[in-house]
Amino acid sequence: MTSAADRQRSARMRRRMERLYPLLRSISGDGVRATLDVLAETVPLRRVGVPSGTRVFDWTLNDEWNAREAWIADTDGNRLVDLADHTLHLVSYSTPVRGRFTRDELLPHLHTLPDHPDWIPYRTSYYNRSWGFCLSQHQLDRLGDGPFDVLVDSTLEPGELTYGELFLPGETEDEVVVSSHVCHPSLVNDNLTGLTVAVELAADLADRPRRRHGWRFLFAPGTIGSLTWLSQNPDVLPRIRHGIVLTGLGGGGPLVWKRTRHGDRPVDRAATHVLRRYRSELRDYSPYGYDERQFNAVGFDLPVGRLTRTPHGEYPEYHTSADDLDFVTDAELAESLEALTSIVDVLERDTTYTNLSPYGEPQLGARGLYPSMGGKAASDAVMAMLWTLGYSDGRTSLLEIAETSAVPFERLHAAATDLLGSGLLAEVTGSGGEGERFLRAVGEELGDRQ
Amino acid sequence: MTSAADRQRSARMRRRMERLYPLLRSISGDGVRATLDVLAETVPLRRVGVPSGTRVFDWTLNDEWNAREAWIADTDGNRLVDLADHTLHLVSYSTPVRGRFTRDELLPHLHTLPDHPDWIPYRTSYYNRSWGFCLSQHQLDRLGDGPFDVLVDSTLEPGELTYGELFLPGETEDEVVVSSHVCHPSLVNDNLTGLTVAVELAADLADRPRRRHGWRFLFAPGTIGSLTWLSQNPDVLPRIRHGIVLTGLGGGGPLVWKRTRHGDRPVDRAATHVLRRYRSELRDYSPYGYDERQFNAVGFDLPVGRLTRTPHGEYPEYHTSADDLDFVTDAELAESLEALTSIVDVLERDTTYTNLSPYGEPQLGARGLYPSMGGKAASDAVMAMLWTLGYSDGRTSLLEIAETSAVPFERLHAAATDLLGSGLLAEVTGSGGEGERFLRAVGEELGDRQ
Amino acid sequence: MTSAADRQRSARMRRRMERLYPLLRSISGDGVRATLDVLAETVPLRRVGVPSGTRVFDWTLNDEWNAREAWIADTDGNRLVDLADHTLHLVSYSTPVRGRFTRDELLPHLHTLPDHPDWIPYRTSYYNRSWGFCLSQHQLDRLGDGPFDVLVDSTLEPGELTYGELFLPGETEDEVVVSSHVCHPSLVNDNLTGLTVAVELAADLADRPRRRHGWRFLFAPGTIGSLTWLSQNPDVLPRIRHGIVLTGLGGGGPLVWKRTRHGDRPVDRAATHVLRRYRSELRDYSPYGYDERQFNAVGFDLPVGRLTRTPHGEYPEYHTSADDLDFVTDAELAESLEALTSIVDVLERDTTYTNLSPYGEPQLGARGLYPSMGGKAASDAVMAMLWTLGYSDGRTSLLEIAETSAVPFERLHAAATDLLGSGLLAEVTGSGGEGERFLRAVGEELGDRQ
Question: Where would I find the DUF2172 domain in this sequence (chains A, B, C) (predicted)?
């Protein structure tokens, strides 16, 4: 059952994807900037341009690439393959071409998917200067004997690598990074879904009166974009406590959490706890995939996991024109956003408490927190209080109690809020030493009574 | 096959339950004292009374409750519901009442189980002053239109909370606490089974010529009784090494060990090892249940697990009149006591040894401990010796070896006794440093030979 | 598909077993020396004799035993059971006998296997002076009523316990011990397979231009032989890093790795990683079996595992005449040697590296290590590079990366060799502190850029 607010949000997410779909994105160029313009209509993005030629760790920023027109035509001028029809038709970073080619000369520049003869593949050639067209096998079969006139009106010139960033400050210095890539052209699951969900989450967090963490949203080209951001922000890195890469949030598969490299960081445990309620899968880290592979590199070692549905390469539509607006349903996107928000809420709300009435059970009934008639089973709310009191030793956080008890984090959080109101809990701040000190003190007090 | 001794013990356990069954128990009052009188016929209980109004951690001891008579009658004086028929008919801690009530006035005070129309529920109202009757749905259906005369001849007056305690001293300062609650009226599985089994175990331990631990048996009302004991005995708490709560030891289910809060304490490992041989289940700690929830509270943090069969709330007869003397069989009780005794024996006998012939295998054949004809498989007794020698490094206890080897603890204990007799093992006492020192010394000796 | 080299090796292994089969081996005597002579034709064995009567830890070396002739004959001189027919006919360490016996007198000295009436059992009586014959049940059934003439022309006299040893020095002080027993007479799986495979491995290692470890091959009688070696080499023991006992490498079962006593030593992890590719089984340590039980004893605590196929006692042919040359196939032996060699290669090649380009992914494409056309899945070779770079933090070894990634060790080793050549990795030597120091330095460098 969806509320009106849910329906409005789904419509907003889809409209955003429909506007982004036709833009010609790559790892640099006007398409990236146009994409950031659309995203910035909802949340205030800071746009950063870093000049071509800048050294970024082991890399050097490539020239900026833009393409205005690109087609293959017969000698009568009929356009047989045309960038204007689909952004995937042109191999990304194709160099400029204008000329007539025999069929044999052209063929090495053409890419198809014989197993899916209706689909156009997605190909790039960022660092190896060449040109090419992607087309369906059916188009290739009908192409004729040639010769063919070919135009690629592109430029590869010094310019910039562009990314967008939004920082929402929190009450503490600790930060969470949420990253999704802006470089793929007309591919929806990979990655208009990540962009539209990230923007919704950012808008939600921006509206909250209180954030414990600073939240940092990155919208950058894959690999080189996140490396560029990492190289520009050495002062931010030590503050990053958690991170999530978002991509492929539609497409029919179960929700998949790809763990951080260490595999057991708080963000992993938050995701594990939340995803238990969904059709979902947990996967170990591997050094391949999206930008988690940069954040987790041994020189940075940042605890960044990834939320997707069916991962890249595991569905036939991946990196083809079949990854279109019909491939992703509103229900999937809504569920992805819901699960993501629950993970975010765990990160924001996880707290360690000390039970201030630690000698056995406090008399909850006297505080109106326990049913007055005995002999029956305890309610979920009472159980959540008992779990929270029974494990709040000043060292064990609510999330850890949720993991131990299998009680949903939200319910424990509600119980903790009540118990805090009744003076039965204290929040552990700072190093957490207070809780232990308190319990040591009560241990001594207990000893003194003899 | 049961021996005469087994049959006598079963008869003794049943007779004890039959005598306890009709007594009106609650968390205070004459019924508790009468119950302790019956238990004290077998083992010498110390009876402790703590005055009403005493502060016990977050609680204050309630007034003592006693009820002499309670009934609902029609206006002809026919008793329709009568405490004299069943102790469950009166809600425990009901306040005194004498008067005539219309049906509508009476109904809010009546409790039934519509799904089990023959059974009487069990209800209490210890801390919320009210009164009520429990009856079967069939009784309610036949009650008539009223009006009704109601008598509850009860008192709620300053008195005492009463519990019984038996301490059997051991060779060391270490103690084990065995706790079972005395507060439930005519409910057999919950908890006349715990009481009768605890008394048998206590009698067995009292007869032993040698006990390593001091054994402390508590017979106290649930929750407030164990809290009261805890508050009265701060000097004892640091000496408690293990604890077991006993309840629900009949009722047809498998043997269930509920782990301590930390889950891996020696008593957990002893129970796990023993219960492997039985139809049984291991469950993690949860902060709900019986008095283990008090002992394990963060302020005490005592390693107390619980032995039951089907736990509370998981069988329909729980907290109803159907939990009667027929609900529990002698065979179940005998098996529960047998398993409990095996756990107790592991706790009493678990020892860490140092292999005094640690350079490879000693020549067991020369000591008559190994078969003279080679080439055949080793016997169970030889294997138990090899496991004991092969792992007795001065740090690893017999129970740990039992866990690693899956050889029953009893068999390893017999092997260790033989090896000790042959001078091949030494018992590690004190800090356990000796075994390590010995092995370091032999390491140096080995080095000196070059 | 087997190569000519494979076929030659198989023929060599079988010829060696055929020559060893008829020799009368025991825990001492001429048969052991003749066995070492055969092995020494391939690799240069050092032969060690330790005098009878020498004290070896808890043991004293037995007299040397030799038997020239042994038979049971009827009074017409027909040999009914004859050591000349099969070495198993005589109980090992039988004392000398010459005389006439009634059937009743003889029977207690005869051993058969009624369940396998064609097979001769294997029996020994090393430490209990007695004599006996082993025969098939069919032979016993046909033996007749007697009387019988019996000859055992054996000697039990001061002599020596003999073992062979080969040491191949390595680049480091670290050593690996490979042990297989030479005491069993005409039993092929147990243990001519271990001997012939060990000799092939020794020959292979001897030919290598570079060995990281010193490799120490022992060919000694079971139990007392390895204890004798251990007692003679106290200076070697601290250098032993890994060890493998070899026996039962044919016989049709899956490859079985029996773990070291601690269960998680590097040799266990190497074997686990390699055996994953085979029909195989992993088993926990138990203090029974072959000489691993001596090496792992608490006084030595050496990390020695065992490679077998179906372990002793789990196949009916075990310790009978049915464990003959037909019981073991060349294919099984070849596979056992292949798996063993892979384990050895992991031990020799496992290395810890530091990623010298640790800030995200290095630009592999610029080094010709990455495909130029993007958008497709990564190849196995690229993935192996990414795993190696992604985890080489100066603390994590290639084997650990292999375990995490499930990428075969060999493939990671090839990738690491390429990356080392490209200057992207450095080998961690010594304490391993360098890698951590490097990463700390880059962390500081990163901080300095702000």
Answer: 64-155
Q: Would you state the structure tokens that stand for residue B87, as one six-digit string?
A: 């102790």
**3-state percent helix, strand, coil for chain A, nearest multiple of 5:** 35, 25, 40
- Model confidence at A10: pLDDT above 80: yes
Kindly list the distances between the CA atom of residue C210 and the CA atoms of C166, C236, C338, in Å, as whole numbers in the listed order: 17, 21, 20
Contact B58 A363 (CB under 8 A): yes
Which chains have 3 or more CB–CB distances shorter than 8 Å to chain C? A, B
Residue of chain B with shortest Cα separation from A402? B286
The CATH code belonging to domain C4-62+160-349 is: 3.40.630.10
Report which of A208, A210, A218, A204 is spatially closest to residue A167, judged by C-alpha positions: A218
Q: Using DSSP, state whether A121 is helix, strand or coil.
A: strand
CA distance A289 to chain C (A): 10
Chain B residue whose CA is closest to A407:
B286
Class of domain B352-448: mainly alpha
* pLDDT per residue as tens digits for the range A221-280: 999 999 999 999 999 999 999 999 999 999 889 999 999 999 999 999 999 999 999 999
| Cβ–Cβ < 8 Å for A250, A386 | no
Residue C262 structure tokens? 């601690």
C361 closest CB neighbour out of A128, A223, A234: A223
Q: Which residues of A touch C447 (CB under 8 A)?
A: 234-235, 238
Q: How far apart are CA C248 and CA C225, in angstroms?
A: 18
- In this complex, is the C-beta atom of B128 within 8 Å of any C-beta atom belonging to chain A? yes
Residue that has been written with the tokens 């160029």 in this structure = A29
Residue C312 has pLDDT above 60, yes or no: yes
pLDDT 10s digits, C110-164: 999 999 999 999 999 998 899 999 999 999 999 999 899 999 999 999 999 999 9
- Has B184 been labeled as part of a binding site? yes
CATH 1.10.10.10-classified regions of chain A: 352-448
* Whether A298 contacts chain B with CB within 8 A: no
Going by CATH, does the domain composed of C64-157 fall within 2.40.110.10?
A: no
Tell me how close the Cα of A353 comes to any Cα of chain B, in angstroms: 12
Calpha distance C413→C399 (Å, rounded): 9
Instruction: Give the Å distances, CA to CA, from A236 to A173, A215, A231, A240, C39.
Output: 10, 12, 10, 7, 66
Looking up tokens 């050097």 gives A60
Chains in touch with B (3+ beta-carbon pairs under 8 Å) read: A, C
- Whether residue C373 and residue A128 make contact (CB cut-off 8 A), yes or no, is yes
Stretch(es) of chain A classified as CATH 3.40.630.10: 4-62+160-349
* Of the candidates C377, C389, C356, the residue with the CA atom closest to the CA atom of residue A294: C389
Which architecture characterizes domain B65-157 according to CATH? 3-Layer(bba) Sandwich (3.50)
Indicate yes or no: CB of C447 within 8 angstroms of CB of A299: no
C114 by Cβ neighbours in 10 Å (0-12 / 13-18 / 19+) ranks as exposed
- Token pair listed for C356: 């010298």
Does C374 contact A126 at a Cβ distance shorter than 8 Å? yes
Please provide the average confidence, as pLDDT, over all residues in chain C: 93
Rounded Cα gap, residues A319 and A251, in angstroms = 12
Residue B192 CB: number of other CB atoms within 10 A? 33
Spatial distance between the Cα atoms of A339 and A354, rounded to a whole number of angstroms: 29
B225 in contact with C, Cβ within 8 Å: no
Residues B129 and C131: their CA atoms lie apart, in Å, by 90
Per residue in B351-400, pLDDT (tens digit) is: 999 999 999 999 888 887 777 666 666 789 999 999 999 999 999 999 99
CB contact C58 to B (< 8 Å): yes
- Walk across the sheet containing C352-355 and list its strands: C393-397, C352-355, C425-427
